[in-house]
Design brief:
The complex is a heterodimer of chains A (about 190) and B (about 150). Chain A has about 190 residues and is α/β, with parallel strands linked by helices. Chain A contains 5 helices and 7 strands. Chain A has one domain: 3-Layer(aba) Sandwich (Glutaredoxin). In chain B, α3 packs antiparallel against α4. Classes of the chains: A alpha/beta (about 190), B mainly alpha (about 150). Chain B: InterPro entries: C-type_cytochrome_biogenesis, CcmH/CycL/Ccl2/NrfF_N, CcmH/CycL/NrfF/Ccl2_sf.
């Protein structure tokens, strides 16, 4: 009896270690639990990227299921996903709102002017498509920090009550839309229409 | 002679460059040495969420710069180091701080090595148990008897 136990124990430990390590093979080291999931949008009051006199607050993102897209002209992947986002906006009536941030216009970090950035944004949107209802300009990137943004592109699916229901790090392409973001979006839209 | 000087200069350039590091670009002013030290400790203990295993002091990622500035701002506002860590954890999770919290899931990080060492010592102790002392004289007598029995 004791002998079988002695033989079985290393085997059990071995199998446990193998299972643990095997999971590590397919785990995404960049995947994190978002802290903002199922939380209402953090408080903010930020200007429109194109018209600084227009101010937005969380109330502007309520009433309709919205996908908040964190982006910037300096981000290559953002340019890559723009045509597909535009397709979704045009054909599936998906509401995209941009959360724009640019370290180069921050006086602490760079020397670009807002006029130059607006020009770049316009060029890029006319070149690749413009999916955005409007763009919120995250001047000091406080909102990005509050949302737990690590880079760009990132997407937040926000329900009609302004609660964040999904935080997707990375771009939206056809595969991501059909398997991950799209189902959540359609489910929320269904909830919204009684 | 000239070659030696050249090599020396190149080495000097490499050493001075590496010692400056990424934070060399930041130009933060501190009221006192203690504040500077808190800032440096915090930025070396907070992990960059974008990079794989780099603290925000060493990283030049955009997010790391933003986080360094936020740490600076919060400290300037009079917040404590614990407040800053709590602020970052609320946004980026436990991942952002190099010291894991003590939970049911993480307690094994401390317990397993102790248990493992304990098990090792236990096995060693069991093996060392001295063999029971036998009465050699009696055994010899028994053997003698068996030998005698074998003889016809």
């Amino acid at each position: 009896m004791k002998r079988t136990w002695l033989v079985a124990l290393p085997l059990v430990i071995f199998v446990a270690v193998i299972v643990f390590l095997y999971q590590g093979l397919s785990a995404d080291p960049r995947a994190r639990d978002s802290q903002i999931l199922n939380q209402p949008l953090p408080e903010f009051s930020l200007p429109d990227l194109m018209h600084e006199e227009r101010q937005y607050t969380p109330a502007d993102l309520q009433g309709e299921v919205t996908i908040l897209n964190v982006w910037g002209v300096w981000c290559v992947t953002c340019a890559v996903e723009l045509p597909y986002l535009t397709y979704l906006a045009d054909n599936e009536r998906v509401k995209f709102v941009g959360l724009y941030f640019d370290q180069d216009i921050d006086p602490d970090f760079g020397g670009k002017t807002i006029t130059a950035v607006r020009k770049e944004v316009q060029t890029m949107l006319s070149q690749y498509g413009n999916p955005y209802a409007f763009n919120i300009y995250d001047v000091y990137r406080d909102m990005s920090l509050d949302l737990g943004v690590t880079g760009a592109p990132e997407h937040f699916v926000i329900d009609q009550h302004g609660v964040i229901r999904m935080h997707h790090i990375g771009d939206i392409n056809e595969r991501v839309w059909t398997t991950k973001v799209g189902p959540m979006y359609h489910q929320l839209v269904k909830e919204n229409t009684p | 002679m000239k070659l030696g000087l050249l090599i020396g200069l190149v080495l000097l350039a490499i050493v001075s460059k590496s010692s400056v590091g990424a934070t060399g670009q930041d130009n933060y002013q501190f009221a006192n040495a203690q504040q500077r030290e808190t800032f440096q400790t915090l930025t070396s203990q907070l992990r960059c969420p974008m990079c794989q295993n780099q603290n925000i002091a060493d990283s030049d990622a955009m997010i790391a710069r933003d986080m360094r500035r936020k740490v600076y701002q919060l400290l300037q506002d009079g917040q404590s180091a614990e407040d800053v860590i709590a602020y970052m954890k609320a946004r980026y999770g436990d991942f952002v701080y190099y010291e894991p919290p003590l939970t049911v899931a993480t307690i094994w990080l401390w317990l397993l090595p102790v248990l493992f060492a304990g098990a090792g010592f236990w096995v060693l102790y069991r093996r060392r148990k001295p063999a029971p002392v036998e009465d050699m004289a009696q055994r010899l007598a028994q053997a003698e008897k068996l030998l005698k029995q074998d003889k016809p």
